[in-house]
Amino acid sequence: MTSSLIALLATTVEALPEEAASAVTQAATAAAAAGGDFSLLALLRDASLPVQFIMALLVLASVTSWIIIFRKWKVIRRAKHEADQFEERFWSGAELSKLYAGTTERGRGVGGLEAIFEAGFREFNRIRQRRGVDARAQLEGAQRAMRATGSRELDGLEHNLELLANIGSTSPYIGLVGTVFGIMVTMHSLISTTKQVGIADVAPGISEALLATAMGLFVAIPAVWAYNRFATGVERLSVRYDAFSEEFSSILQRQSHLDEG
After folding, report:
1. 94 phi/psi in degrees, rounded to 5
2. Cβ–Cβ contacts within 10 Å for residue 197, how many?
3. What is the distance between the alpha carbons of residues 13 and 71, in angstroms, rounded to a whole number?
4. Other C-beta atoms within 10 Å of 41: how many?
5. If you ran DSSP here, which 8-state letter would residue 197 be given?
6. Where would I find the H helices in 95-134?
7. Which among 63, 128, 206, 225 is most buried, taking Cβ atoms within 10 Å?
8. pTM for the full model?
């Protein structure tokens, strides 16, 4: 009896290593196959057609937003630099006529504060040359010209900011649409199969769906950050333009009263 029990235990102990080795081999093979499915290129290549379309749309939106970001950064930076330079010349004590001649004789398009000054002073001189026009009419004409020019300058600075805001606000939802499509395709493919389904079968489809969500966030976050930063920069320039217009109006008002006197 004792010898039979010892022989049975020996047989069981010898069988376990072979089963364990087989299980480990199968697990390693499944892990290797799953690792290939989880690579980024494999997810993009094996994604369903609707999800691939949404991913391509997100890539296009990302490229567009970065083009706008770099261009708008240069435009706003140049506008701030030109405003600093012109204010330095304007408040250095130079005569208005000489400053105006400098803006018109350089043969280049002026912008920002310089364009506002040029429009206001040109309209002021044009109305002043008329006979019988009082100082108030001269000042109001100059102010209208400066407001119109300032509005055009701000409109140029705000160009494409709306598109950047739309990309930032809609990209996460576009990514969620891709997630929904990815999960739907995965569920439909699993329903149509007759074999037993495991985590390795649903993992590629779920990963594909989550990748669409991640791409939507990747597109939206830089666009939203850049829009907020550029909108703040444009707002500061707007305040700066308005302040200069008011200060220049005061100077023109004194000038008109001196001409009447």
Report:
1. -70, 150
2. 12
3. 73
4. 8
5. P
6. 96-105, 113-128
7. 128
8. 0.74
